[in-house]
Every structure is written in C-alpha cells, then in structure tokens.
Amino acid sequence: MNQRVIFPFTAIVGQERMLRALVLNAVDPRIGGVLIRGERGTAKSTAARALAELLPPVEVVKDCRFGCDPHSPISWCTECRERARDGAQLPTTTRPTPFINLPVSATEDRVVGTLDIEKAIQKGERHFEPGILASTNRGLLYIDEVNLLDDHVVDVLLDSAAMGMNIVEREGISFAHPARFILVGTMNPEEGDLRPQLLDRFALSVEIRGILDTRQRVSIMERNISFESDPLAFRLYWLPKEKELSERIEKARRIVDKVTYTSRDLLIIADLTSSMEVDGHRADLVILKAARAQAAFDGREAISPHDIALAAELALPHRVKAGPFRQSQMGIQALEAQIEQLKGQASLGDEEKQEDSEQKSDSAKKKAQ
Q1: Are 105 and 223 in a shared domain?
Q2: Residue 223 annotated in active site
C-alpha cells in the first residue's frame, strides 16, 4: 500500500499568522495549542497535516505503549517507572511524529482510556486499555469541527494538553502516562462557536479568510494542480525548504528553555493584557511562552518587544472578543493599535541599538587611528 503524500507545509500560500501559530506550538507544545477559525477551503486541515509531516522523528522507550521520552524519567508512564524500579533496562528507538485525527463522535473513555475494574477486583491485576491520548503523546492531535465535539471531551483534552499528563482513576486504582502533544482545533464559525470558557483554554487562536490578492490566488491554483498531477515530484521540489524549516524547529526546541526575559518584558505583557481588561492570567503566560518560542525560532536566547507583539497577535484576539468588548469590534481595533505601537517601539529600539553599535564602532576606529 502506497503511503499518502502530504501537501508540503512550506508550499502553503499566505495565511502567515496560522502558519506562525502552528510553528510556535511545534517549537514548544507547552504553549497549549491553537484554534484555527475560518471558512471552508482555507487550508486549515492541510496545514495541520503538513506540520506533523514536517516534525522530526522522536526518540522513545522501545516497546512502550505511550512513547515515553527516555531522557525525561519524571514524565514516564506507570509501566516504564515500574520497569525501571525493577532494574530493567529501557532500550530506545525512534519513530515518526504521530498525527492523530480525533473523530467528533469520540467519547471520554475513547479519549483517555479505560481501567478494567473487574479484572482488578477478581485477579488483583491492573489492566489499562490506552485511549487516543496514548497514541498522541509527543505528536499532533487534530480536531476538525472542534465546536461540534462534546464540551466535556474538549475540557479533558485541554486539561491533558496543559498538564502534559493523562491520569485515569477508577475505584482507588490509578494509571498515568505522558500526554504532551500539539493540539490543533479547526472550525467554521458559521456552524456555531465554542463556549467562551473553552475558547479561552486554547492558548492561541487565528481567524483566517480566503485570500483576495489575485497573484496569491493564482499561486494557490497552480500549486494545487501541480500537486494533484504529480504529488511525489511536487513534494521533492519543496523538500529542501521542508528540511530547512524542520531543522530550524529542531534547533529552536533545543534552546527554548534557555530563552531569557527581563522584568521590563513582563511589565510590557502585563500592561498589554491589563489595558485590554483581559480576564484571568492565562493570556499573560501564553504570551510569554509564545514570545520565548518566537525568539528560539529566530535563533535568539532573549525575547524582545517585537516577540511579545507577535505573540499577542495570536494570544489575545479571541480573549478580547470574549471579554468586555464583545458587543463591538472596538476591542479588536484597540488591541491591533496597541500591538502596532509595540512593534513600532521595538523597531525604534532596534534602530537605536544599531546606531549605538555604529557609533561605538566609529569611536573604536578613531582611537585605533
């Protein structure tokens, strides 16, 4: 059976914010996922599938049902912990990044897995039947039409994504396994929206529309026809760019925890969220995590106001709409104005740094003469 060829991520035309939100979650899944809202035919599902194909293989504990990370004992599943405690060696192997498509009809038990209580009572054995979260660990979980999924199931998924663990408890018996994944939900707002409480739980959100630029629309047609005519040749043509982006994500993953921030950076974030009267503090943390991921993706080990502005573009619009400004677009316009102002300040700061560097260089040359 031939493997299905996936449309390349780097061949997607436009939709810069959507692609950036996906890449930032790939750099640091702890950000908490992305919700992509938009009309049909805007490459939402194409982008999600393409991202999973782009991600590098992951090293896992061999024969582990949950793909535990051999280098992170603190996150091991109950079975790997018991094997290590009994003195067993945990051999490793690599596997492709999993891509799991969650059906809208999925139940809670199907998602989290089940414990066989009868077997535990009768035979004293713990038996856990893994769910979708087990196969999704260290991969990408895609939910199309997430607004049609049962609210309770969405809650469970978002909890697992936030904690990075799936813990199942029944009648005093418990089982835990890692559930760290990139959560991507897509939806068409015309078919109904998510409740504000669930909307806020998605770390980032992007609203996309069909592209109106004539040249870009022509590029979309040309690339799609070319892909349909010869998928392998098309993918081969884009392979260098795919590899380049994949390597860039892998490098960013290695340094994201080293990315630093200052008290001034935290004040900028707090001032932005408080001025928009955003409820709660989740938005502040999301902006900080996304800004660190942006800096890492750009190969830097310190965040800048520009990183904060880019993160805020993705973290705040859906929270402003669900807040005090929901009766009008005034909140979104005010947010956009603040972000543009922040970008302007960042650009001005970069120019001042450049001028200062040039002045120091000139001064050093004069002294040398």
Answers
A1: yes
A2: no
User: Is 138 found in the same domain as 283?
Assistant: no
Percentage helix, strand, coil, to 5, in the chain? 55, 15, 30
Owning domain of residue 350: 256-355
Of the residues 17, 37, 282, 319, only one is catalytic, namely 282
CB atoms under 10 Å from CB of 346, counted, come to 18
- Mapped onto helix, strand or coil, the DSSP state of residue 262 is coil
- How far is the C-alpha of 220 from the C-alpha of 227, rounded, in Å? 11
pTM assigned to the model: 0.79
**Domain of 328: which CATH number?**
1.10.8.80
In a domain, 132, yes or no: yes
Question: The CATH number of the domain where 15 resides is what?
Answer: 3.40.50.300
> How many structural domains compose the chain?
2
In a domain, 92, yes or no: no
Contacts of 249 (CB under 8 A, 6+ apart): 23, 26, 27, 54, 55, 56, 297
Same domain, 229 and 115: yes
355 exposure class (CB count in 10 Å sphere: 0-12, 13-18, 19+): exposed
* Backbone torsions φ then ψ of 93, nearest 5 degrees: -155, 175
Distances (CA, A) of 120 to 114, 115, 170, 358: 12, 9, 10, 72
Q: Residues 234, 298: one domain?
A: no
Count of beta carbons in the 10 Å neighbourhood of residue 113: 20
Residues of 247-257 as b/e, b for ≥16 C-beta within 10 angstroms? ebbeebbebbe
Q: What is the average pLDDT across 298-321?
A: 88
Task: Tell me how many degrees the CA angle 151-154-160 measures, rounded to the nearest 5.
Answer: 145
Same domain for 139 and 277, yes or no, is no
Tell me the pLDDT band of 354, cut-offs 50, 70 and 90.
low
pLDDT tens per residue across span 48-103: 889 988 888 888 988 888 888 888 888 888 889 888 888 888 899 998 888 888 88
Q: Give the largest Cα separation in the chain, rounded.
A: 90
Inter-axis angle of helices 282-297 and 16-27, to 10 degrees?
90
| pLDDT tens sequence across 245-298 | 999 999 999 999 999 999 999 999 998 888 887 877 888 999 999 999 999 999
